């Protein structure tokens, strides 16, 4: 199951704890893990490292039915939602070649369980619990799987757990003026800018433009008071990848309250927090006004844009 250059590609990524993407578990363990190969690890910690491009792969015979990862939540938390990146997200090719979960069993500290169905799509999948559940641990068990084209093992790239106290505005939808089509490296959904993973990104797909005038729109679940945004500008996977794509240096924020603010964005791959006067709004439209050209791709990319 060789994946080659994963460690070197991801060495500059910022940990996911820098983003408001859910709980940070105290620890995670697994029933089994595929052994390391060519410098690449497949252990349980891969599901909480904030990188879609690294994966936990179970090491059981067959397709891993019954294999699990378990989170120690560091105390009682009231869990409301779970988000899962099923399969190996290193590339679309690897995603198809390895097994993906078709159904997950979520087991809580009191022994109760709930089933999480998974579609066979390379996209993050959210599951809201039937009711908020207080627990000190969460076991995620593979109860059914889609078969890969090459390898029998089933993989999960990332799991995020949300509780009732998770901060940040609740997001209803993220749309964009355009999206680049999927390629061998993956998908460029607008929603990637709010997933808490800096190695996934939105890239605009307007071939008549370098990204100037393109926009993202983030709609919240009701009105929210917001006054800052955390941005990862450009392709966040590595310095080499970041240099290839276009980045922005200025944007216009337009709010549903009728107001607007212009912000300056550093031409840097590091996370940056940008403050602005507070607005109570149900949406933010981010229009990119100036663009710095990359060395290879003439598409503007944004890895994270999380409002608080």
**Cα Rg:** 19 Å
Task: Provide mean pLDDT, rounded.
Answer: 91
Low-confidence stretches: 1-20
Helix-strand pattern, N to C?
A: HEEEHEEEEEEEHEEEE
CATH topology of the largest domain: Jelly Rolls
Q: How many strand elements?
A: 14
Helix content: under 10%
Name of the CATH first level of the largest domain: Mainly Beta
Structural class, judged by helices and strands?
mainly beta
Estimate nothing, just give the exact number of structural domains: 2
**Overall form:** globular
Please work out how many helical segments DSSP would assign.
3
What's the CATH superfamily of the largest domain, by name? Galactose-binding domain-like
What is the correct CATH architecture of the largest domain? Answer: Sandwich
User: Largest sheet at a glance?
Assistant: 7 strands, antiparallel
Amount of beta strand: over 45%
Distance between the terminal alpha carbons, to the nearest Å?
40 Å
Keywords:
seven-stranded antiparallel sheet, Jelly Rolls, 3 helices, 308 residues, mainly beta, 2 domains
Short description:
With 308 residues, the protein is mainly β. The chain has helices at residues 6-9, 92-97, 239-244, and strands at 27-30, 56-57, 68-86, 100-108, 113-117, 125-146, 155-163, 171-176, 202-203, 215-233, 247-255, 260-264, 272-292, 301-307.
Structure description:
This protein has 308 residues and is mainly β. It has two domains: 19-163, Jelly Rolls (Sandwich); 171-307, Galactose-binding domain-like (Jelly Rolls), CATH 2.60.120. 5% of the residues lie in helices and 45% in strands. The chain has three helices and 14 strands. It has helices at 6-9, 92-97, 239-244; strands at 27-30, 56-57, 68-86, 100-108, 113-117, 125-146, 155-163, 171-176, 202-203, 215-233, 247-255, 260-264, 272-292, 301-307. The strands form two sheets. Strands 1, 2, 3, 4, 5, 6 and 7 form a seven-stranded antiparallel sheet that branches. Strand 4 and strand 5 form a beta hairpin. The longest helix has 6 residues, at 92-97. It is globular, with a radius of gyration of 19 Å.
């Amino acid at each position: 199951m060789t994946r080659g250059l994963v460690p070197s590609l991801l060495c500059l990524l910022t940990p996911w704890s820098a983003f408001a993407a859910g709980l940070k578990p105290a620890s995670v363990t697994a029933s089994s893990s595929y052994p390391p190969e060519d410098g690449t690890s497949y252990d349980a910690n891969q599901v909480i490292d904030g990188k879609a491009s690294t994966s936990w792969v179970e090491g059981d015979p067959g397709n891993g039915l019954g294999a699990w990862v378990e989170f120690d939540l560091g105390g009682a938390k009231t869990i409301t939602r779970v988000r899962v990146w099923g399969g190996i997200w290193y590339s679309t090719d690897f995603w198809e070649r390895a097994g993906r979960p078709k159904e997950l069993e979520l087991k809580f500290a009191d022994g109760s369980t709930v089933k999480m169905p998974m579609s066979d799509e390379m996209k993050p999948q959210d599951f809201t619990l039937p009711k908020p559940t207080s627990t000190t641990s969460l076991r995620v068990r593979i109860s059914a799987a889609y078969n890969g084209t090459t390898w029998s093992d089933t993989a999960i790239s990332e799991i995020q757990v949300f509780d009732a106290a998770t901060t940040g505005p609740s997001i209803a939808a993220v749309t964009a003026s355009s999206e680049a089509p999927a390629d061998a490296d993956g998908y460029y959904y607008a929603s990637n800018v709010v997933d808490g993973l800096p190695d996934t990104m939105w890239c605009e797909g307007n071939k008549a433009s370098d990204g100037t005038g393109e926009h993202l729109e983030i709609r919240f679940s009701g009105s929210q008071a917001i006054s800052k945004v955390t941005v990862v500008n450009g392709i966040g996977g590595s310095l080499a990848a970041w240099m290839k794509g276009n980045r922005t240096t200025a944007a216009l924020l337009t709010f549903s309250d009728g107001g607007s603010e212009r912000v300056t964005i550093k031409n840097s791959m590091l996370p940056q927090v940008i403050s602005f006067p507070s607005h109570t709004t149900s949406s933010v439209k981010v229009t990119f006004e100036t663009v710095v050209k990359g060395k290879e791709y003439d598409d503007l990319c944004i890895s994270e844009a999380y409002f608080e």
